[in-house]
Structure formats: structure tokens, C-alpha cells
TrEMBL record:
It comes from Glarea lozoyensis (strain ATCC 20868 / MF5171). Gene3D superfamilies: Aminopeptidase i, Domain 2, Zn peptidases. It catalyses: Release of an N-terminal aspartate or glutamate from a peptide, with a preference for aspartate. PANTHER family: ASPARTYL AMINOPEPTIDASE. Keywords: Aminopeptidase, Hydrolase, Metal-binding, Metalloprotease, Protease, Zinc. This is aspartyl aminopeptidase. InterPro entries: Peptidase_M18 (IPR001948), Peptidase_M18_dom2 (IPR023358).
Length: 510
């Protein structure tokens, strides 16, 4: 019997899982996105360089900041200065634990590592999981430079043990983040046996003979074997590792789950789920060689670091990263300006005033702020507004809040609804075009989270809508989402990029 052909939605879910499993940190997520963009023909550019002779209408480009945030875009061949941007924004970070600058700790014969809580995680879910480390190391390259190297230790080396129920009868498990969230890395005796060292060294090297170091040696600040593992993963000698930023992650891979393979189980779904859909939606919209021929806008995605801690950083949504890039793109010359022998004055008479091109672009642009949404939890129905209970695999969720915790308004809903209606059908679908959408508001007696949407809409003055695919267990180390919604989100963004230029001029709101 011939093997059953996998559906397009299942293929998309499996591809997303591959993306998820290779992206334990924001640095890895950006690296994974870059590999996909490069394969699709996107070229790297740098913020520090001049773009006047580099960027051309019809081109596809990407750039990064700090290695943890990325912007990618395709320029329509009919672009001219002051035209709109069609944008999807997401974030690359997730709630996690990070190694402290001085992480070496011991207690009761155990080696432990000090960690810092990043974001509002459900920290009790991190207990009794098989953990390892990933991130980036700054290393000497032998040429006098310090370069960044991605690190991912594949095997479990850390664990945060719970206290046996016999020793604690507390009804609620609320661990103290400073005293009870330290992972164990092994036993001191085993480490001494491995190295052949003794627990105390009597003949220490004379401190006056050591070269001056502004900071302690890495092997004094962290367990030496941790530093050795990082050096090994970086492919350098221990002495070539200058510093590192290390994140803990669960070594259990994300996977397809559910009795009918309709679910996804894994960590970091918030928000790599929407990062993946943004990247794939942009790539899909420019996959045809002629896709940008009749395009007058710039199709752009931006995926920021540090959303989970407020976005206030050089690479967060509250930074100048996106505004600075948009300002430079808004004044790009059109195709006939950059490639014609006609004089600039003659060509430019019908063009926008360059001095106001940025403001004009922002006034006609649109941003989809894409962050995972809440699915209804059948065990806690009372926590949801009765008419707003999003379900997994029923489509992307439009998020609304009267107090502007989300930036959605009715003109944005009108646009997205039309974009969803025009979306191409799934390859294995027997129905007509379109992807489903859902609506969500929180109860009046419940707090509401927020996204990058409100801060970007306020900073840019650009029309913005918040949306995301539904999931359960948000901010847990192990979350759940719908397998079919991966394709829903990807097709929605692809349709947005393909149809925005036509739709933008038809929704008449100042």
C-alpha cells in the first residue's frame, strides 16, 4: 500500500516544529529565520552601511540587530517614496531562565547554577524537567577580533528538583525565585573525580603573578565544566571564550500531539508560533519571481527581542529599530529614478516631497501585531467571557481591548477580514478561498496582557491590529497549540502582503 500523502497543514505544522526545535533562544530563532530567508533569495544588509546603491525596487533584503531581532522586506517594483508599508510584527523571546553573571553555586554536596528569571514565566512548570543551556558566546577568533558564536548543548545537564510531598503539604506550589529555583548540575564529588582535583587547593598561585583581569576569570564565576561545554560547542579553546549569554531550555523536543495529531506540544510557542508564520508568510508572498512586479508597497516583517520584559532595549519594539529602518526606506527612489537616464527633476515632479515621505508612508501603512492568543481552556470556562472563547484550529484570533491593551479597531478588523476572505485555499482543501478568524476580549473582571502593538502604533501613528493563533498554557515551559492554525496564520499573512496595496486605498479612514 502506498504511504498516505501528508496534508499541507500537517506539513506546515511539522516544518514549524523543525523551526521551533532549532530555536531554543532568540539568537537561534533569528539564525533559523535567516536560513529560510537566504534560501528564498533575501540578501543581507547592515544598518551601519549606506543603502543608496544597494536597495532597488524588486529586491528582497534582511538585517539584524544584536543577533536577536530581525527585519526582512521585499520592495515592490512600483514603489516610490512615501508609499505604504505592509508590516507584520512579532517577537523572538520567550519566558525563560538565564545564567547569572556569577552562576557558580554549591550546596549540600551539589553543584548548582544561579539563574535569573526572565519574563513572567509559570516557574513551577520548570521543576523536574530535563534542562540544558543555549545562547551565544563572545569568542576570540585568532585574528584579534571578538566574534559571536551560537551555543546549544543538546544533552540534559540541569534539573530543578521539587521537594517531596512527604516534606511539604502546602496546597499551593509557589516557589521562591531566589532560593528555590536553582538548578542542580551534578555532584561535587563526581566533578572532583572527573578533574582529579581536591576540594581545597593549598598551593594557590601567587595572585601578584597573574595578569590583571578587570573581572574574575569565567572559570571562577561559573563552574569550569560549564565553561568547557560552552567552548566545546563554540569550537574554540576555553581561554578564547571571553563572555557569554546563556539561556536554559527544555531538551524535550516539540512534537505533534493529540489523538488525531491535531495539536502541537512544545515550549516557546509564545511567540515563535507567530514569528514562524510571519517569516513564512513573507517568503510565500514573494516566492513567485513576478510577485513584486505590480507591487507599490514594501512588504516587511519585524521580529523583536525583549517583548516579554517590556520591549525597552536597543533591540526591543520600544527602540528606534523599526522607525529608523522605515525612515530610511520611506525615501528610497522609485525604479525609474534609480535606473533611468531621465533627469531627477523631470522624474521627481510627480513624486512625493522627500522631506515628508516618512510621515506620508506611516499615514498609509498598516501593522499586524502578531502575538499568540489565548485558547479557551475547558477546565476553566469561568475565566473567559462567554461569547469570546477562541478554539484551537478554528483560525487566528483578533484581539480587542477597550483600554488599548491591544491596538485593534474596526477599520483594522475590516481590512483583516477582507484579507482572510481572499487568502488562498489550502492545497488539500476542498473549499473555496479564505481562512477563518476569531474574536477575543477578556472579562471585565480579569486583567489583560499586552503586546508590541499599542507601543508601535503610538510611536508610528500607523494603523495597527493585534492578533495571534490560540494556545493553551501560555508562559509554561510546555505549551499547546493547534496544528492546523500554523497554516492558517501563514496563509493569512501571505494574503495580507499580496492584497494590502489594493485594499489600503479602499478603507477610507483618516
Amino acid at each position: 500500500m502506498a504511504p498516505k500523502q501528508i496534508s499541507s497543514s500537517a506539513a506546515k505544522a511539522h516544518d514549524f516544529i523543525d523551526f521551533l526545535n532549532t530555536s531554543p533562544t532568540p539568537y537561534h530563532a533569528v539564525h533559523s529565520a535567516i536560513q529560510r530567508l537566504k534560501t528564498a533569495g533575501f540578501k543581507e544588509i547592515k544598518e551601519r552601511d549606506s543603502w543608496s546603491s544597494t536597495l532597488v525596487p524588486g529586491g528582497k533584503y534582511y538585517l539584524t540587530r544584536n543577533g536577536s531581532s530581525i527585519i526582512a522586506f521585499g520592495i515592490g517594483k512600483k514603489w516610490k517614496a512615501g508609499n505604504p508599508f505592509a508590516m507584520v510584527g512579532a517577537h523572538t523571546d520567550s519566558c525563560t531562565l538565564r545564567l547569572k553573571p556569577v552562576s557558580k553555586k554549591t550546596g549540600a554536596g551539589f553543584m548548582q547554577v544561579g539563574v535569573e528569571a526572565y519574563g513572567g514565566g509559570i516557574w513551577h512548570t520548570w521543576f523536574d524537567r530535563d534542562l540544558s543551556i543555549a545562547g551565544r558566546a563572545m569568542c576570540k577568533d585568532g585574528k584579534g577580533n571578538i566574534v559571536s558564536k551560537l551555543i546549544k548543548v543538546e544533552r540534559p545537564i540541569l534539573r530543578i528538583p521539587t521537594l517531596a510531598i512527604h516534606l511539604s503539604r502546602a496546597s499551593n506550589f509557589e516557589p521562591n525565585k531566589e532560593t528555590e529555583l536553582f538548578p542542580i548540575a551534578g555532584l561535587i564529588a563526581a566533578e572532583l573525580n572527573r578533574t582529579g582535583a581536591t576540594e581545597k587547593k593549598d598551593d594557590k598561585e601567587d595572585e601578584s603573578e597573574k595578569p590583571f583581569k578587570p573581572l574574575q576569570e569565567l572559570s571562577d564565576r561559573h563552574h569550569p565544566y560549564v565553561v568547557e561545554l560552552i567552548a566545546q560547542e563554540a569550537g574554540v579553546e576555553v581561554e578564547d571564550v571571553v563572555d557569554f549569554e546563556i539561556i536554559l531550555y527544555d531538551t524535550q523536543d516539540a512534537c505533534i500531539g493529540g489523538i488525531n495529531n491535531e495539536l502541537i506540544f512544545g515550549g516557546r510557542l509564545d511567540n515563535l508560533g507567530m514569528t514562524y508564520c510571519a517569516v513564512e508568510g513573507l517568503i510565500g508572498s514573494v516566492s513567485d519571481p513576478s510577485a513584486l512586479d505590480d507591487e507599490s508597497s514594501i512588504r516587511l516583517i519585524t521580529c523583536f527581542d525583549h517583548e516579554e520584559i517590556g520591549s525597552t532595549s536597543a533591540q526591543g519594539a520600544g527602540s528606534n529599530f523599526l522607525p529608523a529602518i522605515l525612515k530610511r526606506l520611506a525615501v528610497l527612489p522609485s525604479h525609474h529614478e534609480s535606473g533611468s537616464d531621465k533627469s531627477y527633476e523631470k522624474v521627481n515632479k510627480d513624486e512625493v516631497d522627500i522631506s515628508t515621505a516618512y510621515e506620508q508612508s506611516l499615514a498609509t501603512s498598516f501593522l499586524m501585531s502578531a502575538d499568540m492568543a489565548h485558547s479557551v481552556n475547558p477546565n476553566y470556562l469561568g475565566k473567559y467571557e462567554s461569547d469570546h472563547r477562541p478554539e484551537m484550529n478554528k483560525g487566528t484570533v483578533i484581539k480587542i481591548n477597550a483600554n488599548q491593551r491591544y491596538a485593534t479597531n474596526s477599520p483594522g478588523i475590516v481590512l483583516v477580514e477582507e484579507v482572510a476572505r481572499r487568502a488562498k485555499p489550502s492545497q488539500d482543501s476542498t473549499t473555496s478561498n479564505g481562512v477563518p478568524l476569531q474574536l477575543f476580549v477578556v472579562r471585565n473582571d480579569s486583567p489583560c496582557g499586552s503586546t508590541i502593538g499599542p507601543m508601535l502604533s503610538a510611536a508610528l501613528g500607523t494603523r495597527t491590529l493585534d492578533l495571534g493563533n490560540p494556545q493553551l498554557s501560555m508562559h509554561s515551559i510546555r505549551e499547546t497549540a493547534g496544528a492546523y492554525d500554523v497554516e492558517h496564520g501563514t496563509r493569512l499573512f501571505e494574503s495580507f502582503f499580496e492584497h494590502f496595496s489594493e485594499l489600503e486605498s479602499k478603507i477610507l479612514v483618516d
